[in-house]
Amino acid sequence: MAGEERAQATVEMAVVVPVLLVLALIVYNIMLFVVATARFDRIAPDIVAAHAVSPSGEGDGPADDSVGVIESRIEGAMAGYDVEIEVTCTEGGASSGDDLLT
Fold first, then answer.
1. pLDDT tens for residues 70-98?
2. Which of 16, 42, 55, 79 is the most buried (most CB within 10 A)?
């Protein structure tokens, strides 16, 4: 009887271990995503506020220089993560005082 119980435990372990490994890899990937998202949420507003509010240059043309600087700074801050960064700039203004928060 002892031999049968030992063999049954081996079979159960052979079935459970791959499932646990897959679950561990899923949890690891989710945690990497959460950490990268949290880091981006912390750094992006600071970088944009620092470089977009007072861009370097004449300011006559489009904000291509600011976009490039912001994109490179965010890419540098997210260097440990496998992410693609794309920064765009749109010109906008409020048409009336009621639309400021939309």
1. 888 999 998 888 888 888 877 765 555 55
2. 55
Query: Do 39 and 77 form a contact (C-beta atoms < 8 A)?
Result: yes
3-state secondary structure 12-33: HHHHHHHHHHHHHHHHHHHHHH
Closest CA to 68 of 92, 90, 87, 91: 87
Count the alpha carbons within 13 Å of 57 in the hemisphere toward its beta carbon: 15
pTM, full prediction: 0.64
Cα–Cα distance for residue pair 46/42, rounded to 1 Å:
7
The candidate with the shortest Cα–Cα distance to 81, out of 47, 34, 48, 45, is 34
23 pLDDT exceeds 80? yes
Does the pLDDT at position 27 exceed 90? yes
